[in-house]
Structure formats: structure tokens, C-alpha cells
Amino acid sequence: MDLRNQHPECCTTSFGFSFNKINPDLSTPSLNPNRFHRTSEISVKELIVRRGQAFKLTLRLAPPFRPAFDQLTMTVVTGRPFIPSFISELQRSSSPETGVLVLAITPPAACPVGEYKMSAKLGEEERDLATLSVLFNPWCPGRFLDWVFLPDEAERQEYVMNEHGIIYKGVDKYIDPTHWDFGQFEEDMVKICMKILDYNVKHKQDPADDVSARCNPIYVSRVVTCMINSENGGGILKGQWGMDFRGGVPPTHWSGSYAILKKWSNSVFSSVKYGQCWVYAAVMCSAKDIYRKIRCIWARICNCDQSIREKIKNTCYFTHAGMFCCGPAPVSAIRNGDTHLKYDIPFVFAEVNADCITWLVKRDGSMVNIETDSIKIGQNISTKSVGTNNRMNITDSYKQKEGFYSFPSPRVNREMTAEVLFQNPVKEILRDCSLTLTGSGLFNGELITR
């Protein structure tokens, strides 16, 4: 930023500060910028801000600052060579003649999340100043809208600020609520989550492209789903659905995410043993807590950023381009069977709508279908209610009621083909059956029989 001949209230820059003394004062709670960015629970020692929201810096320069003659350039860098443009405003409380510059710095609401390095140059003197972490901002509405904006404060408190949640396991008639500590405010959690981003395969292949794509919460979500699974190489959790848990911890013994993530980080990114579906889901939520928390539900589906109405699959079983990951997928698309949309909707749709088939395997290896249950799968999909520990049934958000199907939007004056398949539930041949369809112009006035 060049401060010469600039209006003191509106200066655009790359970012930074300078040389004799630098505020913010992170040691004083009332002055700590983390407090206003709702990150003081994460750290009071490191600068952690949310994109789209300003924070103030006070620069105390050794010589007086002369706006007409002195050029102050400030730079912020994340990755290389990507350099985002931050907004800097020189505040009225500045006193250039005494060397005091008060700046309001705003990371753009669409900048990549991650760790940034700040530097400043005044004349011929250049200095590295500090580092800061920039997170997604569910409190950022309006002109500088963050994609993950949540309009409801109660939901923000539940999904971003609440460390404790409930995961629902078991089957639809015997639901087992398990309390879980997501631990997003534990020591070093931000650094661990940054390691998750930096250790993913795409970052190793093309660091610059990966870093620049971190502005998109959908991209970050897919990276995290990949990194949860050990099958992708260097992933956090190794799954075990048998009974042999030697060399590790049985999945039922975990009660929080921090111990798992800390162990993965301390072991130089060796997969932690062992996890099962709900453990994958819980750790996924904790990693996302740092960027923008998601609410976790059991039944192998996780409810993601409400602002973009997307859902992330947390079991990480599905392969895409050779990687185990799944989602985010729009809930409305899952419910309506819009399998042509991204991401991995056919897989998730099948998980909540599949038929449970009982086969009789004969001695010669042939199989006979003896029972088909089209209702059993996808019942009682549950999540913790906002602000309470009550269970909320959200099955209707993910699937139509059994026996009820509708088109997601009206189709007017357009030809449409509907295929209806019937399965005879009895072994006898049915005769004199009738099918009644009600609607305007369904058959163009013609009666069709076959």
C-alpha cells in the first residue's frame, strides 16, 4: 500500500504493519482482536481472524510518518505465489506526525482460509512482522457475504461455538446417543487443521492451485473428507470393523476428537487406529469446526454448511478420482433423487433409500430372493437439536415418505415420461388390476392400456 496522497479513511493494500512497535495487544483481553472475531476461545496468543471482518492494527514508527513523502507497503502472503488483496483503511485516530498509524484491516470474504505471513516495507527497510490465521466467517452477511454465512445466531452458537455434541448410533428402533467432545478450542487445533490442508494430495501435486482454491468451502470440505480416511495415504483414521483392535484403540473407546487429531499430528501423520463410521463423522466435524463448524448426524450422513445447503458425507468410503471422499451434496437433491448433480448424490441417495434384500443361497450357489424390505433403510436419521440435547428426526429432509414421490418443480407444457414399476408381493398371478392416475392432461385425452 502506498499512503502518499491517499484519503486517510480508505486505502487499499495487500496488508501489513511496521517497525518500532506493533499492536494489536494480544495480552489484553479487552483489546485482543480475537475477541471480536469470536476466536479467543481458540487462542489468545495467536492472531486468528475471520474473513470479511476488519481488525485494527496500531503501528508505531520510529520516525514520524510523512504521507506526502514516505511510502509504506504492506504485504500478506499465503502459499506461493498466491497473494490475496486485503482491504486497509487508515483510521482517524492515527497520528502520522508522531509515527502512529491505526489501520483497519479486512481479509476479503472470499479469500482463501489458512495461515498468512505479514511483512512491511517503509522506504528501504523491509521486515517480516507476524503470522495470522484466517477462517471462514458464518457471521459475515451483506455486501461482503461469506459463503458459509448463517443468519440464525442460535445455529451459529450451536454449530460453531459449541464444543460438545451428540452422535446417534445404532438402528432406527434402538438409537444410542453418544456424547462427543469436538474440541475445536483445544490447544494447537488450528495448526493441526492447517496441517490437514497442507498434507492433502492435491497440495503436494500443485501447492499454488490448492491454496488458491481454499476460498471455496466446497473444495475445503472435499479435501477434509479425503484426509479423514487412511486409505488415501496419510489420512487421519484407519478403519476396523472386525474385533481385532491390537496396536490401537477400539472405536468405542474414543469420546472426543482432540486426542485423535493430536495423535495424528504428533506421529508425523501416521494414521490413528481405529475408527468406525461415527468416529469418522465426529473427527470430520472437529476439523471443520476450525473453518466453519458443521453439525453431525448419524446414519452415515453429516449435515454441513446451512448457508449453502450442502451436506458432507463423513464415512469417506466412496471413491472419486481414486480418492475416498464423498460430498458435499445438496440435501434437496438427495431427497428428490437428482442424481445428476454434484457431488456423489447417487451414492448418498442409495444409502438412505436402498432396499434391504434377504437372499437364500442354495448349495449350488444360486440365490433366491425371499424378502425385500423397501422401508427399513434410512429411518430415524437424527441430529442434536439446536440449543438442547434433544434428538431431532430429520429423515424427511433426506428422503420422501415411503410410497410418495413428486417432481421437485412443476413441469408445464412440456412432454414428460413417467415409468412406474410394480412388484407382485404374492406368488399368485393377479388379474383385473387397475391403476388410477389423477392429473390434468396426463394422457392427452387418450386411454392407454397394455
From TrEMBL:
GO terms for MF: protein-glutamine gamma-glutamyltransferase activity
InterPro entries linked to this entry: Ig-like_fold, Ig_E-set, Papain-like_cys_pep_sf, Transglutaminase, Transglutaminase-like_sf, Transglutaminase_C_sf, Transglutaminase_N
Domain Transglutaminase N-terminal: 34-121
Pfam families assigned: Transglut_N
Gene Ontology cellular component terms for the protein in this record: mitochondrion
UniProt record, GO biological process: nervous system development
Membership in a protein family: Belongs to the transglutaminase superfamily. Transglutaminase family.
PANTHER family (alphabetical): PROTEIN-GLUTAMINE GAMMA-GLUTAMYLTRANSFERASE (PTHR11590), PROTEIN-GLUTAMINE GAMMA-GLUTAMYLTRANSFERASE 2 (PTHR11590:SF6)
The name this protein goes by in its record: Transglutaminase N-terminal domain-containing protein
Organism: Xiphophorus couchianus (Monterrey platyfish)
